[in-house]
Amino acid sequence: MGRADPEEGQLPAPVKPPDGGWGWIVLLGCFVITGFSYAFPKAVSVYFKELMKDFHVGYSDTAWISSIMLAMLYGTGPVCSIMVNQFGCRPVMLIGGLLASSGMILASFTTNIIELYLTAGVLTGLGMALNFQPSLIMLGTYFDKRRPLANGLAAAGSPVFLSSLSPLGQVLLEKFGWRGGFLIMGGLLLNCCTCGAVMRPLDVGMKRKMEKAQDKYEAKEMLPIGGKSEEGISTTDGTKKAKKAKKKPKKGKKLLDFSIFSNRGFIIYTISKFILVLGLFVPPILLVNYAKDTGVPDTEAAFLLSIIGFIDIFARPACGVVAGLKWVRPHAAYLFSFAMLFNGLTDICSARASNYTGLVIFCVFFGISYGMVGALQFEVLMAIVGSQKFSSAIGLVLLIEAFAVLIGPPSAGRLVDALKNYEVIFYLAGSEVVLSALFLAMATYCCLNRGKKKEPLPEKNLSAGGGSDTEEAESDVQEAEEHSSDNHQPAHSTDNAVVAASEEANHVAEEQSGEGGGCPEGDGEVLARDGCNADQMVERDSF
Fold first, then answer.
1. Residue 333 and residue 339: Cα distance in Å, rounded?
2. pLDDT band at 523 (very low <50, low <70, confident <90, very high)
3. Alpha-carbon distance 183 to 166, whole Å?
4. Angle at Cα 26 formed by Cα 83 and Cα 79, nearest 5°?
5. What is the CATH number of the domain that holds 318?
6. Does some domain include residue 151?
7. Is residue 385 located within the same domain as residue 438?
8. Strand runs labelled E in 80-228
9. How do residues 36-80 score in pLDDT, each as one tens digit?
10. Is there a single domain that holds both residue 343 and residue 389?
């Protein structure tokens, strides 16, 4: 069957993710937003030495700028979810772009470190948070079958922007100073507004088309006579307005859906992600200082991060392609567990690397595993909770991750100061990542897969995850077509026959209403039989 035509009175298919078209523009916007969100807090570190000289502060004081940015990115997740559910993705992203840009512009006029915390840290961090989360929500709206690939390509924005923003910041620092660099960086962040502007809601205009088609469909079903069809359409318009007036006292949409905590898959994912973040970011943060302590020159030590970023650029899209394969996608949670296990074992095996060659090998494998984790983390979450509840789920997950971010790297830094030994830190971080991988794999197998085997007829609940939006939309279309085919009767060749059939149907309806229910008998047996089958079908579907 082709696409339903509203002009012919047929019901159009429900809105489905296009997996292309304008979705590629949305993907490009998400690529840029992801790059700014993850790379910008790290790229700002280029200006730290100049800030230390001007404000007469230490390195730890300036490092709080990046920490505050990351804390705002993760910790404001529920606030972003509430704003998205209330106002939509596009307005929230436009406001976020303005906040991020104005924060860096105001930071260029600051006179002390506290003002930098409030402008570059809080304001810019909040603006990037208001862009990052809605962009992921829109990506899940536009892609379903190609969603793993889309997530991988969007996640590649982080290493690409990290590789470009850091050298750009160094050039701006040399030519314009840190104030001029902050001002230009603020102008670059205005591109977030452009990315927000292209986030067009997928169902704009489709609801109107479906309502008009529904009216025409009902009119043609009720009044098949050609001369009265227009009159029927006008009457259905009146009944439609009356129905809208009755539906006004309906409860509003939840600003933050806490019902996702009843989903066992979401609980398992959240716990494993908290354990993962405790150790995931520790090795790249300490890598440069670790290399310097082993006798590696400063320039070569800094190049190690470039190796991780370069490998990461290709690892994320490649992992997205693999995750999108038909025989791999149903088991995305196990692939995510493998990626975390790979990353944790890389940390443990490289803890005793004592020369530059060993550190380069570590960077190669760490870049591959780190890219796999980055490409799969949000894809697995979308598969668990579904696109409808993803806005609330990602906000709550980011809030929980914020606590892990504030615990993990600072604790590792204190252990380094106390023990003067990086080897123990790498063992500890790798063990945490391995533990998260084992917990996710074992809990998914024991708590989810065994539960599915025991339930022969599972409910089609979106919050349980596992089903794609396209499959649900196709099933809805089939139900609508079956319902319309059961209730539709073939037209007679003459007007007299049509009038006689309509009078006979009215007579049967009167008898049925007088008897208080049941299937009519006698002359209207054919019509009554069709009506009963339709009712039985509706009851069976609802059960």
1. 10
2. very low
3. 16
4. 15
5. 1.20.1250.20
6. yes
7. yes
8. none
9. 998 888 788 788 888 888 888 876 688 788 888 888 888 888 888
10. yes
